[in-house]
Design a protein that fits this description.
This protein has 507 residues and is α+β, with helices and mostly antiparallel strands. Helix content is 39%, strand content 24%. Among the domains are: 109 residues, Herpes Virus-1 (2-Layer Sandwich); 92 residues, Rossmann fold (3-Layer(aba) Sandwich), CATH 3.40.50. The chain is globular, with a radius of gyration of 26 Å. The structure holds glycyl-adenosine-5'-phosphate.
Length: 507
């Protein structure tokens, strides 16, 4: 079970995100638009800080990686070449009684989770009975009921993966019927046939004739591939090199749920790393390790992460990993790392009739490079940060606080400046402190409410430092600085504030 693995915990995070101006439902005054969200004043800061942290560690840190900002609209042939028109489908099924639509594979996976839970229950029961002598591995490999469940899970998984790989939609329906999987809303097993559903949104460019149909990009990657030669030539890049991009992507998800985990409009941070054919597995290993390091450098507990190697591969990949995160609803994909071979560049070469090759000065050969991709959803990273950061704490005086222990480098505000009272020249001195800090850090000046309330508010938005200006400040130019996590306070000279905050932000 995960850290905060419960519906209750998830509801608290969603409510907190709204109450403190991180995330609002899109078009809320019209009762909202499903699977679209707006980022409020603190949300946009956190989001920008995640982008900045990613961009710096990819583009600034790696001398052979450059950036790109390509258009969302692309020539429709792009999606024919990339395979998205043909293969970017999800198998969907409708329940005739509730009229609810589901992804057939997710229905089956939820069913597998239920069987998995039965195994967990047996293990818990036995662990209680045997105490310290309990050997879980032995129990799993010998207990008849657990063995039966494990075999069942394996058999269902194999059947599902086979059916998905071979696009046997009838077989998926048969599996759902045979396992007696019912609709979570109506409770009935009155299902339609399984059909493929393309996830791309389309619109018309200019006039409304069918020939002008274009698509909103479902991944930012294709903007990088079609610009491969432009960037390689103008940047005079030598293999291996990378192109990084942050931008919006759109998918008409069949079941959009779980808050900002699965949205119809979302943002991706993607790197396409171009390498010599034959070296892609080494680079896949390299980027897998680099990306895990990126997450861990934030100081988020190791237990939140898990690596998963794909059995079922996307249409463009020959090997792939997911970095999974323990969200409030369990471990799910946060980031994908794919070896995409030369699939995309070769396909664009073929469809456009333009050569997309690399001339290797060392071997004096021209070839289509292979690609290793890292792709992380910005919104999912945002949810991961909130999940790990949200804490309810009981304090020594028996009061309680909700604190977001966001890694300081990502915190929306780095410091808050409070004059103790609104008189005696303290606000003026507070403004002076604020003016010293605000060019380098996002800071907030607050004089309303008691100091205690101001602390609570900044705990709730994750501000690492609160600085209080009091009467002593006027005499000796010192302030108290309170650290968010330990709540410890220290008296320091105003001139040292910059250095103290900067030290905490250093990676
Ligand atoms: N270019 C490769 C690609 O797009 P993907 O696994 O489909 O691969 C990459 O997506 C990442 O984008 C995922 O790991 C996830 O973090 C994010 N993502 C995908 N679909 C999403 C959605 N509907 N809402 C939010 N994030 C999503």
């Amino acid at each position: 079970m995960g850290k905060g693995n419960s519906e209750d915990f998830f509801k608290k995070i969603i409510a907190h995100a709204k109450e403190y101006g991180f995330i609002f439902q899109s078009s809320e005054i019209y009762d909202g638009l499903s699977a679209a969200y707006d980022y409020g004043p603190f949300g946009v800061e956190l989001k920008n800080n995640i982008k900045d942290y990613w961009w710096k560690s990819m583009v600034q840190y790696h001398e052979n990686i450059v950036g790109l900002d390509s258009a969302i609209f692309m020539h429709p042939s792009t999606w024919k070449a990339s395979g998205h028109l043909e293969a970017f489908n999800d198998p969907m099924i409708d329940n005739k009684d509730s009229k609810k639509r589901y992804r057939a594979d997710e229905l089956i996976e939820d069913h597998l989770d239920k069987i998995e839970k039965k195994i967990d229950k047996e293990i818990k029961k036995a662990a209680k009975r045997f105490g310290d002598d309990f050997d879980e591995d032995q129990f799993r490999s010998t207990h008849p009921k657990v063995l039966k469940y494990t075999e069942k899970i394996e058999a269902i998984k194999n059947r599902m993966n086979n059916a998905l790989e071979n696009e046997q939609l009838d077989e998926l329906k048969k599996l759902i019927e045979e396992e007696n999987i019912t609709c979570p809303v109506s409770g009935s097993a009155n299902w339609t046939d399984v059909r493929q559903f393309n996830l791309m949104f389309s619109t018309e460019l200019g006039s409304t004739s069918e020939n002008n149909k274009i698509y909103l990009r479902p991944e930012t990657a294709q903007g990088i591939f079609v610009n491969y030669l432009n960037v390689q030539k103008t940047g005079r890049m030598k293999l291996p090199f990378g192109i990084a991009q942050i931008g919006k992507a759109f998918r008409n998800e069949i079941v959009a749920r779980q808050f900002i985990f699965r949205m119809r409009e979302f943002e991706q941070m993607e790197l396409q790393y171009f390498v010599q054919p034959g070296t892609e597995m080494e680079w896949l290993e390299y980027w897998k390790n680099e990306r895990v390091k990126w997450h861990k450098a934030l100081g988020i507990d190791d237990d939140f992460f898990r690596l998963y190697e794909h059995e079922k591969l996307a249409h463009y990949a020959n090997a792939a990993y997911d970095i999974e995160f323990d969200f409030p609803f369990g471990f799910k994909e946060l980031e994908g790392i794919h070896s995409r071979t030369d699939f995309d560049l070769s396909a664009h070469q073929e469809h456009s009739g333009k050569k997309l090759q690399y001339y290797d000065p060392e071997t004096q050969e021209s070839y289509v490079p292979y690609v290793v991709e890292t792709s992380i959803g910005l919104d999912r990273m945002f949810l991961a940060v909130l999940t790990a950061a949200y804490k309810e704490e009981k304090l020594q005086d028996n009061s309680e606080r909700v604190v977001l222990k966001i890694p300081p480098i990502l915190s929306p505000y780095k410091a808050a400046v409070f004059p103790l009272t609104k008189k005696d020249g303290l606000p003026e001195k507070g403004r002076e402190v604020m003016d010293k800090l605000k060019f380098n850090f996002m800071c907030q000046y607050e004089e309303k409410d008691t100091i205690g309330k101001r602390y609570r508010r900044h705990d709730a938005i994750g501000t690492p430092y609160c600085i209080t200006v009091d009467h002593q400040t006027l005499e000796d130019n010192t302030v108290t600085i309170r650290e968010r996590d330990s709540m410890e306070q220290e008296r320091v000279e105003i001139d040292r504030l910059q250095e103290i905050i900067q030290k905490r932000l250093s990676m």
